[in-house]
Amino acid sequence: xALSPITKRRIATFKANRRGYIAFIILVxxxxxxxxxxxxxxxxxxxVYYKGQLLTPxxxxxxxxxxxxxxxxSEPDYADPWMHHEICKNGWMIMPLLxxxxxxxxxxxxxxxxxxxxxxxxxxxxxxxxVLARVMYGFRLSMIFALLLVSLSSAVGITLGAVSGYFxxxxxxxxQRFLEIWHGIPVLFLLIILSSMVVPNFWWLLGLMLLFSWMxxxxxxxxxxxxARNFDYVRAAxxxxxxxxxIMRRHVLPNAMVSVFTFLPFMITGAIGTLxxxxxxxxxxxxxxxxxxxxxxxxxxxxxxxxLGLVGFFTLATLLSLWLFVGEAVRDAFNPRKIFAGRA
Amino acid sequence: MSLLTxxxxxxxxxxxxxxxxxxxxxxxxxxxxxxxxxxxGKTLTAQSILQLLPGExxxxxxxxxxxxxxxxxxxxxxxxxxxxxxxxxxxxxLNPLHTIDRQIIEAYCWHKRVPRSHAKAKxxxxxxxxxxxxxxxxxxxxxxxxxxSGGERQRVMIAMAISNDPDLLIADEPTTALDVTLQQQILxxxxxxxxxxxxxxxxxxxxLLMVRQIADHVAVxxxxxxxxxxxxxxxxxxxxxxxxxxxxxxxxRGGPAPLKMMGESESTDLVEQPILSTTLSVHFPIKxxxxxxxxxxxKAVDNVSLSIRAGExxxxxxxxxxGKxxxxxxxxxxxPSTGPIVFMGNRIDGLTAKQFRPLRRQLQxxxxxxxxxxxxxxxxGEIIAEGLKLHEPKSTDHAARIHEIITxxxxxxxxxxxxxxxxxxxxxxxxxxxxxxxxxxxLVVLDEPTSALDMSVQAQVLxxxxxxxxxxxxxxxxxxHDLRVIKAMAHEVLVLKxxxxxxxxxxxxxxxNPQQTYTKALFAAAFGEMI
Lengths: 344, 531
What we know:
The structure holds two protein chains of two kinds. By secondary structure, chain A is mostly helical. Chain A is built from 15 helices and three strands. Chain A has a domain of 239 residues: MetI-like fold (Orthogonal Bundle), CATH 1.10.3720. Chain A has a three-stranded antiparallel beta sheet with strand order 2-1-3. In chain B, the strands form four sheets. A six-stranded mixed beta sheet of chain B has the order 6-7-8-3-9-10, with helices on both faces. A six-stranded mixed beta sheet of chain B has the order 16-17-18-13-19-20, sandwiched between helices. A four-stranded antiparallel beta sheet of chain B has the order 2-1-4-5, covered by helices on one side. In chain B, a hairpin with a 2-residue loop joins β14 and β15.
């Protein structure tokens, strides 16, 4: 698809904001790395060569008794000295850089939480799980949660805002009143109540938060549609006989998307913040999930182990700051004054 | 000695010179007009006299007033005291939060150092209101600007400007935002005040007709330079420079091509049978109270009948608020209306949006504002193709037809990949016309298609429209407040006032012999007798 001159100029302005552009690259790299967490931080080997067979434990679950001739009728603990010895006797295995995933317990530490060592670069938490591994998985979870939430809520918000603004009338009137009531509900408290009624998992939380997060964009989109529906070129399209839905998509929506894109990065930081606070309070993701909020809570409960709180804080601060810088650059890119600076 | 001398004035924004080496003198008690199209630097030249330019402008040159050099100290004595200024837009030039009595005598009280409550100030206020013809406001001068009409506001502006009996009055397009009949009143008022008080005046305008009516001297500006200057008689009777000649020739003239010349066949019923006829009303309900009950209606258009024949141009004339645009939009079913609309022998007023859609290609629309009418995110090619793709998704000759129409409107096919912002106002209007004409419609509604354009461009666009009418045998519904344009374009004219049809008839007959007083007043204003 060919880029229009205006899009090219926007990309150039985005890149011209060095801080935002670098933040964007870092964020994309980190996210890409965290998507591969299974290959970087895992208690299973990447590859096992055992008795002339190549095994990939990350993708397949091998039963210890059937495959390796051990005692357990379940997946083997590859960190167990007996397993290690057994495999190395009959072949070899490659372990990931970090030999823990987010739920594996480091049995060799004396007292959890344990301070950073070469085996656990950021220490372990109060259940002897590796903090670095949990941060990696937690970062991924937060990012995916935020991206999903924001895409779903913008889909809902843009649609409703567009219909409400473009057609106006009674629907608009009642929808606005409904929004006013819905806005008045204290979201965090309601989420806490709801999450005590159901057992919250990832999708439940996503759904519950979606109930409220879609409102962020409705006002912006509605205002843009309300403004643009009487533009001359919209009228001209109507006079040409272009169907209303096509007019909305082709002639009006691009106007609204400018403000939507400006909002998105800030919506993402908001989503990450809410998820973290729920986790911190213990109403969020199920116990055992890798979560930044839970890490912060552990830091609060274990002030004698400052690495927990510090790691939690810095991870979150970095993540949110990166999004914020990206948001500023996006805002620049869609700022007509900057786009058209130096002309006219 | 001249009252005002401007020597070698150059104004630049960055490296871009907007006023280039302008020299001008204004004599005591005379009116000097500065004429030019938009972007010619006429307003900036005038603003520089009182140092009203935006901060980023760099100014060179010398300005002397009454033998006194322009300095920062002098300027406070000039502003509002010895030099008064009137701005174009009377709504934004008055402070909406202060009553007009306060605004009128503000400059007087400040320069004469009298308190507002002083008897002298009150006396002055009464005198000024008398002078600008607002005597009826004397007893109730504590009104806010929004309670006044556009013409009254402009009178208030004039009262403010003359409150200290200035030697020079600068009027920056003082009538452009007003309707024609009001324009004439304000013009008369300015001329009378100027004579009675022996003021000099710098009159900035784009309208040559007004220059001729009011000015003694003219300076024609083009791209920041003074192209030609001299007395009104010499410039109008014997223009020297090609630009001046072009400007003078640009006034719309001639009439529409006679109807029977046009159709390819001479068959009479093609000419006689109207393609569109209607008796139409557009009423907007006024809703009040919590329950939004309808308590009245605004009759934007009230029982207006019209019929248009193929290849004919029907002009609709009226001042702002007369309902002419509502009528046009209602015909295209863009706003709801009541009353029958018969198009090509079929009633179209009852059709649903879906039923009407195939007919839309026959009824097209061109807007006034060439900047708002094109989607800035689509290329010119996409804009013109939109209707074709919609109404003839299967035909394969789109590209050829777009090429043909873009050439016909005087642009070149290699412009099709560009976006609207790369074009001037006149070119954009051509694109909008191409978008309408590519569908080969039977009727095009032209809603003030030339009002936002400069005079010279306006003439070209009108010429283009006439040519297209000849080639495509299309009917126009031509809406305008400018009777000169209507006279040049329309076969039939309808005069609207406050939603009602005042008078209608063939253009020549109506212009030669208007019957109604309103029409007469409108015509007198438009063709401007000498003041």
